[in-house]
Design brief:
It contains 18 helices and no strands. By secondary structure, the chain is mostly helical. Helix 8 packs antiparallel against helix 11 and helix 9 crosses helix 16. The longest helix has 40 residues.
């Protein structure tokens, strides 16, 4: 399916560019070609930028693995993961890496989540009988990653607060989208989980899964009660302390336990870090290929045509179209995180950061994921060429999450 989407992006983009050329836009091919070359450079830069981060986190994970902490984390959540990932053998290190990856995603720490996720993919590949085809645990892991829950959208809050200051909004609370965003991302996560479980015939109506979901709902309520009343500046400081404090405490815990158990922590770190360089380099062709196709689709004007058609359809059936200005953020987020961030800022600048489109754009940005990027990087890191229904599952989660974000936006702000 990924091959079909890739070819479609390129050919539809070419047809759209050709149509614009026939209408007199003689610079269209130059713009598309420029965007194509820029995307190739971006893909290379992103992959090289991952080298240092990959070396750091794979080194830390190697210490945790030898100290037995990764196995301990995996055992703590074993009942839930045995239900969701029945294909992972009991006690396999992939379970611990998945737990660490989900934890980093929860805290919004992308720099930690990506290398931990890549490590999990490599461990899942070890138990994959067909090395070119995505296994069931891989598909579930990828879909849950693309629909990953983020407790607190720190970057979105910071951008809203900054724009509010520029627009002269005194007493503005940039974190007022915290709860709606959390609900929207939980909806997306559940949609991805149920969609893949249905295909893989996994029974989710079991005590460990229900306890996990109920516990997360309780955590959302507790976080809202604890943080909703804080001033914006104090909230930003608290969120930053929570995320960075938890991660750095884990690093210190890994090293302390490793030293206590007599492990050569330095040697373990170096051994793990050596793996990071090769993983980051292996990603390059996959990431460049995906970013190139996306750039053609965007720069040829296809995204604009798609949005125009959606707005016309919404108005034709008589529905309220106030959400349409924020819709590009959701559609772009599946393709490009930075592109969606730019569109979010544009919506907030055009309509106002405190307007309904501005708030909805923030909720969408904080509750959706860059599906094509995640699939290209994660599957590329282990050489998977046949992704089965991973893309479909990720897009289902994105679509449900986007619809959920819109409905929640109307419920809270319209």
């Amino acid at each position: 399916m990924l091959n079909f989407v890739w070819v479609a992006f390129i050919l539809i983009g070419f047809v759209a560019a050709l149509a614009q050329l026939l209408q007199g836009d003689t610079a269209i091919f130059a713009r598309v070609l420029s965007a194509l070359f820029d995307s190739a450079k971006t893909g290379f830069d992103v992959s090289i930028g991952l080298v240092g981060i990959m070396c750091l986190w794979l080194g830390i994970m190697k210490i945790g693995e030898r100290a037995g902490l990764i196995d301990l984390f995996a055992r703590a959540l074993a009942p839930f993961f045995r239900c969701v990932f029945p294909g992972i053998p009991k006690g396999h290190p992939a379970g611990g890496s998945i737990v660490m990856n989900f934890s980093a995603n929860l805290l919004g720490l992308d720099n930690a989540a990506t290398p931990l996720g890549l490590k999990a993919m490599r461990e899942l590949q070890e138990i994959n009988p067909n090395k070119a085809v995505a296994s069931d645990p891989m598909v579930m892991f990828l879909v849950l990653n693309t629909a990953g829950i983020t407790l607190i959208p720190t970057s979105v809050i910071a951008i809203r607060q900054s724009l509010a200051a520029e627009q002269g909004l005194a007493g503005f609370n940039g974190a007022d989208i915290f709860l709606p965003t959390l609900i929207a991302t939980f909806i997306s996560f559940c949609a991805g989980l149920f969609a893949v479980a249905w295909v893989q015939r996994i029974q989710l109506l079991r005590a460990p899964v229900l306890v996990f979901l109920a516990g997360f709902i309780g955590l959302m309520a507790a976080l809202y009660a604890a943080l909703s009343g804080l001033p914006p500046e104090q909230l930003a400081q608290t969120v930053g302390l929570l995320g960075s404090g938890v991660i750095f405490s884990l690093i210190a815990l890994f090293v302390a336990v490793g030293a206590w158990r007599g492990i050569d922590c330095y040697d373990s770190f170096v051994e793990g870090a050596k793996e990071g360089f090769g993983v980051a380099l292996q990603i390059i062709p996959y990431l460049v290929a995906m970013l190139a196709a996306i750039s053609v689709f965007r720069s040829s004007g296809c995204m604009g045509y798609l949005l125009g058609a959606i707005e016309a359809a919404v108005r034709w059936v008589g529905l309220d179209a106030d959400f349409v200005p924020a819709l590009p953020v959701g559609l772009m987020k599946t393709l490009s995180g930075s592109g969606a961030r730019g569109l979010m800022v544009d919506v907030m600048t055009t309509y106002g950061v405190d307007s309904f489109p501005g708030k909805l754009a923030a909720i969408i940005q904080g509750s959706t994921e860059t599906t094509f990027y995640v699939l290209a990087v994660y599957f590329g890191s282990v050489g998977i060429t046949k992704t089965r229904y991973a893309l479909a599952g990720g897009l289902i989660a994105d679509a449900v999450g986007l619809i959920g974000a819109i409905l929640i936006g109307y419920a809270f702000y319209h």
